[in-house]
Amino acid sequence: MSPDLFLSAFVSMFVVVDPFGTAAVFAALTNKLDKAMQKRIAVKAVVIAAIILTTFSLVGEPLLRHMSISLPAFRVAGGILLFVTAFRMIMGFHDPDQLNSEKSAYKDRSDIAVFPLAIPLLSGPGCITAIVMFATSSKNMVDYATVMTATGCVLLIALSCLFFAGFLGRMFGPTGYGIVTRVMGILLAAMSIQFLSDGFHQLFNIQ
């Protein structure tokens, strides 16, 4: 197992998933539910996210090949998509006050484990893009296992954050959550630019 690959995949997935920011969303959406229900929702959301990410890590490369999409082209598209995700994080689209707005897309809370927790927070377009890029870049099964192990670790951290969302909310407060999410957004924006740069270099054979 390559420590560098593990660290790269772990940091990338951690920044995209943003467990602390997701915990803030979870706390805002489940504050009126009992503890047992909150835990069931958290587990269901993480399991669904794990299934989605594992599926895309397996079918990503065959799907790209079937659609005649090169990896450099996917890197460029993925970089743009990750930048949009980063922009939304920096601008506070997932802040609790936005979630509770009457205009919020999250006002339907019939199954919040699926939406918005599993999709788009834990396994949204940004996460899917990142996992496909790492999986398709894996040279062998050891590299693939390293990427999936890193992803699993991030999801376990996210589950722990959901379990202790109330405690984290009291510790960080709205201001602390906002700061953490925006810092993650800045890191993700930088990462997206790197994906774009790598993609363009490969597409146009720039030395």
From TrEMBL:
* Localization terms from the record: Cell inner membrane; Cell membrane
Annotated keywords = Cell membrane, Membrane, Transmembrane, Transmembrane helix
Question: What GO CC terms are in its UniProt record?
Answer: plasma membrane
Which parts pass through the membrane? 6-29, 41-60, 72-91, 112-135, 147-167, 179-197
Q: How does it sit in the membrane?
A: Multi-pass membrane protein
Please state which protein family the record places this protein in.
Belongs to the UPF0056 (MarC) family.
The record's NCBIfam families line, in alphabetical order, gives: NAAT family transporter (TIGR00427)
Q: Which PANTHER family match?
A: UPF0056 MEMBRANE PROTEIN YHCE
Name by which UniProt lists this protein: UPF0056 inner membrane protein
